[in-house]
What we know:
Layout: H1 12-17, H2 36-40, H3 71-89, H4 106-127, E1 131-137, E2 140-145, E3 148-153, E4 162-167, H5 174-202, H6 209-225, E5 229-230, E6 233-234, H7 236-245, H8 251-264, H9 274-280, H10 290-303, H11 307-319, H12 326-342, H13 347-360, H14 367-376, H15 380-397, H16 402-421
Antiparallel strand pairs: 1-2, 1-4, 2-3, 5-6
Amino acid sequence: MSKRRRSSRYPGDVAVVNSVSWKTSGSSLGGRRKLDAARSFPVCCFQIVVNSYSRPRTGYENPYEPRTPTPGRLGRIGSFISGLLILADQKRLPQWHWPAFNALLLFPALYVVFAFHEIGHFIAGRLVGLAAGGISVGPFAFAKSGEKWRFRFDRRGCILGGFFMPLTTADVPPIRYAWLVAGGPLASIALTVLFGLIYIQYGDGAWRCIGSLFWTSLFSVIISLIPVSSGLNKSDGARLWQLLRYPERARCWMALLALQTENANGLRPHEWNRPMLEQILTTDASASEYLYSQLLVLYWKLDEGLEAEALEHLEILLAKSARVGKALRQALFVEAASASALIRKRAGQARVWRERACKLRKPESLDALDAGIAMCEGRYEEAVQHWEAAKTHVARRKLDSGLVRFATGKWAEFEAACIAARG
């Protein structure tokens, strides 16, 4: 996963569950994100590892004292510089010009380079035995949801960037993840070298396309290798450094990927691997994936019927929500609205949370949440209509992950309760 990157995300299928999961309650199909699942944790990471250079030292040398230049060394350096100046004066040096860049080709070049970067993650993953669960470039995404694969164009998605989501298991060693993560930057480096060689042979090409692709590829290499974290995501450089230098610290992230795989394969939260759930519960509160990990734990508790514990967990998540991006924060606000309406029976408070969620950005659908509020207020006929609309929305998006199955199962229970209540 990725690089340049990208706004904080969480699994798109999680979006469907948002606030639809409360056991005695309904919920809302918060308009979340596409396969944000994948986006949230596109496996992208890579950090520049600089090997320290140390020269042989004699016993009396001070390793912290600068080495004094000798007359012989200074003479050789001076001779080299003088030779270059003489050749330049006689016009015998090769004339080198850096590739030109056409700003009009910036976006097409970025899409080509980012697609090649993600394909690098895919190829590296396959070479180490990790299947693909999803891949995205900009707003174009192709990902697995249950037994189905689906393509989606998200007009509200990140214009630039991308993700690759692997399908993993609990016993995958860190070194295989490291190769997976390194695949993207290595592909970008290969592309940069390729366009550099083409430029040397043929020049900038029509519309300066070769030069533009060269600079864009080089840009991709640099931003993917810089070790930075943003919201839920780490750059390739940061993730690779963690995997190679501190593999134990990456255990929670690897467990999170394993749970995402189980969700993508259609397993409901109560069917998820229990040791993996216990592993992500140990995620450090300062880690970039902490809140997303705890959101999955929240869904697991709801599916197990542990509503009281789920409410306490939700309060902790809301208290820390300011540190994440809009997508995940909106998911938490929608969950809070659902809990207020269907567990605490406070429709007014639910509307406040709903309004806060909508201010962050426009949801794709709030039918499930509106159904929960209507059910809380005794408007059962209207609630049934909203439940039906929520199910239609999911069917239209062709979602079939474990979280979606969990959500739709709850909606069916709530709809039946509303039909029974209206007489």
